[in-house]
Amino acid sequence: MPRRGRKRKKTRTHVVDTDERIRGGLLSNDELKIPRSLVIRRGKVESELTELVTDIRKLMRPYTAVNFKEDAKNRKVTLSHYANSLSTSMGVTHILAVSQNSNRVTLRVGRTPGGPTLSFRVKRFTLGRQIRSVQRRPYDSTKAFESPPVVVTNNFGDVSAAPHVKLMRITFQNMFPAINVSTVKLSECRRVVLFNFIRRDMSQVSSDKKKHVGDDDDLEDEEVEIRHYAIRAKPVGVDRKVRRLVEAKIPNLSKLSDISDYITGQTSSGAPAPAVLRPGEMSDSEPEDEDTQVVLPGKYRGKGNNQAQKSALKLVELGPRLRIKLYKVERGMASGDVMYHAYENKTPEEVKALKQRKEGEAALKKRRREEQEANVARKQAAKDEKLAAKKARKKEREEKAMAALRG
């Protein structure tokens, strides 16, 4: 059947702006400096640790792989493989690996691609789900995770602190983007991550353990406590009932005859007005303390939190909650010299002997690899030579057969 109608003519054309495309493909220097993390689990772990990995990814948002899935076939893949594969292509700067064995849980934090690697022993942890279950009004906002948190490092000391303590502080700070005070937007400061360094007098702890047997027997010196909070702001300077109306939390006024009865708390006849607040609407932990009240330099999240308005700040814990202990620092990415160990002290002679042994093992491994590569090359050359000889013999037989046919 003949074709009916004219040939289709293209009427829509997508014009690509070359300059805009180039500017979109190139990253600015500030974007290149943003640290990006990857939180993974290593080996077989309990279901609680799987939830802990999810909570840590939530804490590290937005510059982390939230939906990263570990392949069960790659359980034996080392951290250096992750670092070499993802640090260049995906821009990953830090890898956090959670693993478990029969008696402990380990968290390793490594700087890609060359280290160092900090190994922590997880003494205790509480999931975000468990924290929300005991809160009266848990915090639930997805927009709070669209901007990086404010990092607070407490009690880590000054420049006179021990080298491993300074390394911990620098590592915790560099896992999150730095905040420029002159350009940061107040509305983006929605979360706080606290790293609290706990120092204890172990002699006093030992004497207390003798008095109270079984209470905190695993207490150690130089532990780090990690907390994750959300920032809430409430306008102050007005009556609490008026503030409820400003925040669009309309109470039940069915038992009142006028809005003034709700504001004043009594009816027109002078009798007390019935209670109209729902259970749980009032809280004993409302931030009414003057120490928590600040004058906002700009508009903040929430109704009534306008510029130059006095508001009270409140922290709501999001989870997870961890208490970790640094026990080893390695120079490379989960490999190399041990720069610090909390439970083993070696003399300079032992360190020198260990370093020489490691260098000897590395040299032996390199020599064996070179020998293996040479053997593979020799076998491949012999195989190619044998194949070439076979082809030459076949060609010679074909030439003789053709000569015989020609007489």
Automatic annotation (TrEMBL):
GO terms for molecular function: rRNA binding. Residues 357-372 have a biased composition (Basic and acidic residues). GO terms for cellular component: preribosome, large subunit precursor. It comes from the Eukaryota. SMART domains: Brix. Residues 35-335 form the Brix domain. Residues 266-290, 357-407 are annotated as: Disordered. This is Brix domain-containing protein. One of its GO terms (biological process) is rRNA processing. It comes from Skeletonema marinoi. InterPro entries: Brix, PPAN-like.
